[in-house]
Records
---
Amino acid sequence: MKKRIAILGSTGSIGTQALEVIKQHPDKFELEVITAQINSSLLIKQAIEFKPNAVVIGSKKHYKEVSRALSNFNIKVFAGEESISQIVEMDTIDIVLISLLGFSGLNPTINAIKAKKQIALANKETLVVAGELLVKMAKINHVNILPVDSEHSAIFQCLTGEDFNPIEKIYLTASGGPFRGRDRNFLSKVKKEQALKHPNWNMGNKITIDSATLMNKGLEVIEAKWLFGLNPEQIEVIIHPQSIIHSIVQFQDGSMKAQMGLPDMKLPIQYAFSYPLRLKSDFPRFDFINYPKLTFEFPDTKIFRNLALAFEALKKGGNMPCVLNAANEVVVEAFLKDKVPENGRGIGFLQMSDIIEKCMQTIQFIENPGYEDYVLTDIETRKKTLNYISEI
Ligand code: MG
C-alpha cells in the first residue's frame, strides 16, 4: 500500500526535496496535497507534474490564477490560511509533512494531530513554541511525530530498538555556520550576503541566518527536549564543522551511538516517510578518504549568545521559548532586509541577540500556558520586537 502524503509548504527548500523523494519512489509514496503561501507559479508547476488530489494557496489573491491554471486537471483548489489548516483532515492522507515557516506551522500541526495523521515535522518552531501541548496531544491521539530535522532524525534513528534503555545524554552536532571562530568585532559588521553562505547545507533563508547566529541550534535544543523527553542538562551542543556526524546518543552504560552520512536533507525526509523501513536510495555515499579528519569543539556562547538564550528559555519554560521564537522570527526578517520601516536602516547581526534578550526580560511570563496564551505571547512579542528595532 502506498503512503499518501500531504506537504504543507511544498515550494520551500524542504518541500521541493520531499517531492524529489516522492518522485524517486512512485511505488511507495503518492502525493495527495500540496500547499504554498505565495509562490503560485511553482505550486502550479508542481501540481501539473504530480497531480495531487488538492492544492492550497495561502494567499487568497492568487486563488484565481491557480484555479484557472489547473482547471483542465482533476485537482481541487483552495485558498487561505484556514484552508491550509483544514486540508490536513482529509481522509485520504496518511502522513503530513509540516514544512511551513515559523509560528505559522502551529495550527496546521495541531489539526493534523487531532485528525490522527502521522506527522513528519520539519518545522522546529512549532515544537519550540508549544512543545508540551503538541507532545501531550500526540500521545492522546496515538500519533507519531517523526523528526525531519537532520540532528533529530539522527537521534531518532539511534534510538530505534532502544525502547527500554534510558538516554543518559545527547550530543546535538552543529556545523558552527559561516562565522565559526570569528569575534564580536567581526560579527558587528557582517552583512546578510555573508550570513547566507552556509558552508555545508543549502537551506531556506530563515534557517540559514539562524545557523549563522546559532539560534538554529538553540531551537533544536528545545525541539530535542520535547521530542525525546529530556532535561536541559541531558542536552549538549558540540561543533562539528564537517557535518558528517548528525548527532549522538549516549546511553547509561556509556556507549554512544551516532548517525553519519553526507549532509543531505533528502535522507531524513525519506526516513520520516518510510519509517520504520529504510528504502534503497542513490544519495551520494560518505567516503572516508574525503574526510580524513572529523573535528569537534565547544560552541562559544559568549560570542554566539543566541544559544545561551535558548538554553535559558528552555530552563525557564512556560511561554519563554515562545517569546524567544517570536522575537527571533522578527529580528531575522529585519536582518534580511537592508532597510526596515521601523528605523529606516537595517539591523546588525549582533543586535539580533540583544533584542531577543530584551524581549525575554520584558514580556509577561506565563508558567503554564495554553494555546491562547501562545497566540497572545506571539503577537505581543512581535509588537515589542518591532518597537525595539525602531529604537536602534
Ligand atoms: Mg538541523
---
Amino acid sequence: MRVLVTGGAGFIGSHLSEALLDRGDDVWVLDDLSTGRLENLSTFARHPRFHFVEGTVLDGSTVQDLVCRCDRVFHLAAAVGVKFVLENPLRSLRTNIRGTEEVLEACARHQRRVVLFSSSEVYGKGVALPFSEDDDRVMGPTHKLRWSYACGKAVDECLARAHWEQQQLKVTIVRCFNTCGPRQTGAYGMVIPNMVLRALRNEPILVYGDGQQSRCFSAVSDVVRGALLLADCTSADGEVFNIGSDEEITITGLAERVRTMCASSSRIEFVPYEQIYGRSFEDMRRRVPDLSKILRFVGYRPQRDLDQLLESVIRHTREELRRPIPARHAPV
Ligand code: NAD
C-alpha cells in the first residue's frame, strides 16, 4: 500500500512511518519541519520505499497531488504543544483548521481512507471521568488561548464527520491522550522529555502548579499500533476513538518516579502556572480515557506501562546527551 503521513517528521509521525515501512508499505511524508525534524527520519530516510516532501498541508495542490498518489492517509500535521500554541495562536489555528480542511477535501475528492489525529484536549475541563467518546465537552472562554487548540481539533472532527455524512469519506478519528517516547522534544512544553533531561543533568525538575493534576501517559508504540489497527478496520469508518493509556499519575508523582529511575539528585521545584504561561492560563485537573470502545472494535489494550515508557525515554535521552544536538536539549 502507498501511504501518506502528514506531519511524518514529527514525534508520532516518524514512529508511524517506521512501522508502515516495517510492514511493507511505501511511505510519503509531507512535513513543513516547523516542529518536526529530519533527524527523526534518520534511521529510515534512505529506505527505498520512503519519500519525503518538505511542504505544508496549507498548500492545496501539493496535498491533492500526494493524496491522489497514495491509497491511504494518516493526517498528523498540526501545531502541537501548549507552549507553541500560546506563542503562535493564529498560525496554529490556520494549520489545524485550514490544513485539515485541505487534507479532508483531497481525501474526499479521491476517495481515500484517512485516519485523523485529534486530541484528548477536545474534552476540555470536563470532570466526569473517565472521558468517553460520546461525552459532552466543557471549554473555557475563547479569550483564553489555551482552548484554541482544543476548539481547532473539535472543528477538525466536525469537518471529518461532515465529509463522512455528505461525501461518504472513509474517515476514522483518534483522540490521542498524552503520548510519549523517544524523539519527543521538550521544546514545546511536553512534560516527560523535560523532566528526564533535567533529572539526567541533576537540575531542578519543574512541576507546574501544585503538582496534584494528573495525566495518563501512553507509549508511542501503543498509539501507533492502535492507529494501524483502526486504519484496517472498516467498521471504524465515521467513528471516533480514544487512544492511549489509562494508568493515571499526578505530575508530582511523575517527577518523583523520573528522579528515582534516573538515579538523579535533582530537587523538585514547584512553579506557578502564571510564571510559565501567563495569568489567564487554565489547566484541567485530571484526564483519563475510557478505552472500552477501541477495545471493542479492534482489541486494543496498551501493552507498555509507565515504567517501560520512562525507561525508553531515559535510554534515548542518555544516548542523545552523548552526541549533543543543542536545540533539542533546550528544556523549558
Ligand atoms: P509533532 O509536533 O512532533 O508533530 C507534528 C508535525 O506536524 C511536525 O513534524 C510538524 O513539523 C508538522 N507540521 C506542523 N504544521 C505543518 C504544516 N502546516 N504542514 C505540514 N506539516 C506540518 O507532534 P506529535 O506529538 O507527533 O503530534 C502528532 C499529532 O498527534 C498531532 O496532530 C497532534 O495534535 C496529535 N496529538 C499528539 C499528542 C501527544 O501527546 N503527542 C496528544 C494529542 C494529540
---
Amino acid sequence: MVLPEHIAVIMDGNGRWAQRRMLPRAAGHRAGMKRMLSLTEHIFGLGIPYCTLFALSAENLSRPKEELDELFELIRIYFTEQIGPLRRAGIALRVVGDCMLLPAATRKVIEEGVRAASDGAKGTLALAIGYGGRQDIVSAAEKLAEAGAQITLESFRESLSTGGMPAVDLLIRTGKEKRLSNFLLFESAYAELVFSDKLFPDFTCRDLDRALSEYAKRERRYGKIET
Ligand code: IPE
Ligand code: IPE
Ligand code: MG
C-alpha cells in the first residue's frame, strides 16, 4: 500500500465530545491528547516519516481564558512527559506557528522540549501551536524581503515554519467540518483530503488506517493527464 510521506491532522471536535457527555470542554481536550499519543505512535510505527498535528490555531487564542489555561497546561504536560518517549523512538519534535503569541511560561516549556528532542532518525513530529497558515505565509515573505533574497517557490517554501518538511500528502480533518481553518495552506496545495465525522477523541488507529487506504486508492495527477 502506498503510504503518505507527510500526514497532517486537524484534530477537531474535542469540545463537542465533552459537551455530549455533559463534561467541561477541558475534559474533551484531555481525551484528545490521549488520542493524539496513540495516533502518533501508530503513524511513526507504520514508517510514515513526517506528521504535522494542528493543536492550537492563532485564532483559537481568542477563546475564553479558562479554556486557554487548560490548553496551555496540556501543552506543558505534553512537553514535560513526551520528550523522553519521543527521543527513545528517534522522533524529532518541532513546533510550527508563532510561539510569541503564547504566554512566556508556555513558550519556555516548548523551547526546552524542542531543544531536548532527538535529531529524528525515525521521523519528525511537528505540532502546530499558535499557528495560522496565512500568518505563516506573510512571515515567510517578510523574512525573504528582509534578507533581500530572491523569491522562488523553493525559497518561499523553505522560509515557512514547516521549512525542510515535504509537502503534505494526506490531510485528515476529524469532527465533521469540511474546511481547512487556516491550516498549512501553502503546504497542502496538492494534499489528498479526508474528512471524518468522528470527533477527535473518538478517532481510532483503525479510523486512521481507513483514511490511509482511502489515500492509497486516490490517483494523484497534479494537473497532468495520462499520456
Ligand atoms: C479542537 O477541538 C482543539 C482545539 C481547537 C484546541 P475544538 O475545541 O475546536 O472542539 P469543537 O470543535 O468545539 O468540538
Ligand atoms: C481548527 O479547529 C484548529 C484546531 C483543530 C487546532 P477550529 O475548531 O478552531 O476550527 P473552526 O473554528 O471550526 O473553523
Ligand atoms: Mg473546533
---
Amino acid sequence: MKEIDITRGIIENHVADLMQSLKSDVVIVGAGPSGLVAGGYLAELGVNVTILEKKLSPGGGIWGGGMGYKYVITQDEAKGVLDDFDIPSKPFEDNLHAVDAIGLASGLIFGAVRKGAKIFNLVVVEDLLVREGKVRGVVINNTFAMMNHFPVDPITMEARAVVDATGHEHDIVRTFSSKNDVALNTPGGKPIGERSMFAEPAEDAVVTNTTEVYPGLYVCGMSTAAVYGGYRMGPIFGGMLLSGKKLAHMLAEVCGK
Ligand code: 48H
C-alpha cells in the first residue's frame, strides 16, 4: 500500500465526479432537508443533479432538532417521504410523527447519495451565471478561501435549472436580486422577508411557494418563506420534505424526465 496511490484514488475520483457535474441538469444550492429530498428524487427520476453545500456536514438545520432536543416533528402527509428514504419515525398525537433528528439528517444524506445525487461539501455558491434573462449556472468557490477572505477567483458550473435551497439565508435569491436589476416572481419583484412563527400556515406556504422565482431559478424549503414573506414554523419538517418532493417533480418535467 503506497500513500501516493491513496492520494491518486482520491484525486481521480473527485475530479471524475466534478467533471460530471460541470454541466448538470439541476444544481441545488444547500444540502438541508429540502435540498436533499429534491436531489434524491431528481436523481431517482434520471436527472443529473448536483447538490452544493458550503459546510463540512450536509444536513442543514436538522441536526439540532428543537433547541438542541434531538427530535423533530413531521405530519402524516410527509410520511411517504420518510418511507422513501427508509427513515424511522414514531407516531405522536393525531397526524404527527416524532423523528430522531440525527436519523433524519443521516438518512436524507445517505438516501440522496444512494439514489444518485452528487453532493459536494465545502463549496460555496457565491453568484449565478445569467444569460439572456435566464439563470444558466452557478459561480462557486472553496469554503476555506471564502472564510479567510483570500482573493481566490471562483469557477463555474452550468445547469438548466438552479435551486435556492439555502434556508433562512435565501443566499442565492438575495445575492441575485441585489446584484442585478431584475424583477423576481414576487409581489414587488424583490424578496419579501420571513415573518414570525405560525406553524400551520407556514407549512402550507412552503409547499405552495416552491416555484420558479426567475427564469431558471427555483426556490424550495425555508428560502421560500424569506422570498415570499411566509411565516416560520419552528422544528416541524414535513413542509421541507414535501417542498423538496414537489420541486423534484416540477424539475423532472422541465428536464423531460
Ligand atoms: C452553499 C449554502 C449556501 C451557499 C447556505 O437551512 P437548511 O436546513 O434549509 P432547508 O430550507 O432545507 O430547511 C430549513 C430547516 O432546516 C429550518 O431551518 C427550519 C424548518 N426552520 C424553521 C424555523 O422556524 O426556524 O439548509 C440550508 C443549507 C445549509 O446547510 C447551508 O450551509 C447551505 O444551505 N448554504 N451552501 N452555498 N451560498 N448558503
